[in-house]
Amino acid sequence: MNKNYSVTIEGNEALLERFITAIAADTVKESAEYPHPLELPTGELFLVDSIVQYFLNKKPFIAENAIQFCDKIRKKSPEGFQYYTLETWVKENVEKLYFDKVAIRSAGDEPLKPGTDLLAVNPEHLSFVCYVAICLMKYGASFEIVTVNRYFRMVKALGSNEVEELKKYGSKKLPAQLTNYKDENVSCVANDVFATIKIKVNNECETAYQAIFQFINELLKVDFPKSYTIEFSAKTKNVLPVKGLIKTGVHHLFANGAQYPNLHPLIEEYALLAMKKWEWYHNLQDENCAMPSTFAVFALGLENEKYFELVKKYMQEVDEGHQSIQEKFTPAFVEKFGITKASLPVFISCILSMQEHKPFKLFAEAFHNVQNLQLLLDCKRNFPDFISKSSKEDWSEEDAREMPAYLWTYIIYSIWGPDNKYPALIKKSPPEVKAFYAELLQ
């Protein structure tokens, strides 16, 4: 950790002004050491949060200047820039001044303090609140949408129409051809502020879905939020052969599109662009919450063995502590491809994608033969090779010794259920497989 940096604003104003000048001239650099202070060409170091705080408190406050400065410093210091500094500014300069935190809130309500004079509210402050909300939507964690919506309610409550403009046109920072597309078959509209992609199919055909996937893929290559909502409307509502999978617009979109083999490369491109850990489809909640790319991966993963690696990548990327929708995919995958030398690593990645995968009778049946039990036994003997590199990155030496055996219990549970059933299973198994069961289960 680098400790040779300044934090205190008072008494360092002249140095801070030098940093502001250097940031404008692109002559500062970010220190590689935590907490990643900025460094002047002459060697002085200053914590990014303090620089931002100092700039935002300069008078007069001009929103466009503050936005340009924050954008510049965010790009210059991606590791050191912290959004809670901006949130603190909102709290001190808007929230505490105008909003009554004691009053009981109704849903979607931000109660103003009694006697608030809307004419006295600085519109420059409200514009900056909108900017902070947009930043949180685009670059913050997926749960920041709660704060984003609260900020927008605050701005509306203080009499600004800026939120309505953002609803209509987005931030206007993306080219119109990226956010709007329409032809005789389909219309597509995206809003980068509210993280929505709205799609309507007028004529069902391959050309329509080609245009849709091209539109979304190009959008995800630019500065669009990584968590978002896809709203899809079409007369055709195909579903994937996955029992219990939620029937929602984004599900229908990829089930419809997957029927055209020529579009599979575009769907795979989408999956790779959209697949981001700790990001979500905003309109899917609780047990149906899903990382963007989920339905594209499920669609392709049940089409052809050439997408096995895509499925493995997805399963290794999901947040195993907060997502369980993939549990519905695993039995569909086994039913389609069975257990083979090629499919076993995919099956293992599916089981390890969550903390405790439900056992299915189908799994035990798929392994109830000498060939597949031998595959599973080989897997057990070389199990660390089946665990993803990302999972092993933070392991200590002790973890490396103990975790494979611990994770192996998940595999066995997901195939045969609780361990109190194992003695009976071994006892009643046919002679040709009894030795396999004994080694796998004991």
What does this entry look like structurally?
- It is a single chain.
- By secondary structure, this protein is mainly α.
- Among the domains are: 13-168, no CATH class; 170-319, no CATH class.
- 50% of the residues lie in helices and 6% in strands.
- It contains 21 helices and 7 strands.
- The chain has helices at 13-24, 48-56, 63-76, 83-98, 123-139, 145-157, 162-169, 176-179, 206-220, 249-257, 264-274, 294-301, 308-317, 329-337, 344-351, 361-366, 370-381, 389-392, 397-416, 422-428, 431-441; strands at residues 29-30, 38-39, 45-46, 180-182, 186-191, 196-201, 229-233.
- The strands form 2 sheets. It has a 4-stranded mixed β-sheet, with helices on both faces.
- Helix 3 (63-76) packs parallel to helix 5 and helix 4 (83-98) crosses helix 5 (123-139).
- It is globular.
- The mean pLDDT is 94.
Overview in brief:
With 442 residues, the protein is mainly alpha-helical.
Write the layout of secondary structure elements.
Layout lengths: L12 H12 L4 E2 L7 E2 L5 E2 L1 H9 L6 H14 L6 H16 L24 H17 L5 H13 L4 H8 L6 H4 E3 L3 E6 L4 E6 L4 H15 L8 E5 L15 H9 L6 H11 L19 H8 L6 H10 L11 H9 L6 H8 L9 H6 L3 H12 L7 H4 L4 H20 L5 H7 L2 H11 L1
Parallel strand pairs: 6-7
Antiparallel strand pairs: 1-2, 2-3, 4-5, 5-6
Helix pairs in contact: 2-3, 3-5, 4-5, 5-6, 9-11, 11-12, 12-13, 13-15, 17-21, 20-21
Largest sheet: 4 strands, mixed
Q: Pick out the low-confidence regions.
A: none
Shape: globular
SSE run: HEEEHHHHHHHEEEHEHHHHHHHHHHHH
Q: Determine the strand fraction and express it as a percent band.
A: 5-15%
Mean pLDDT across all residues, rounded?
Answer: 94
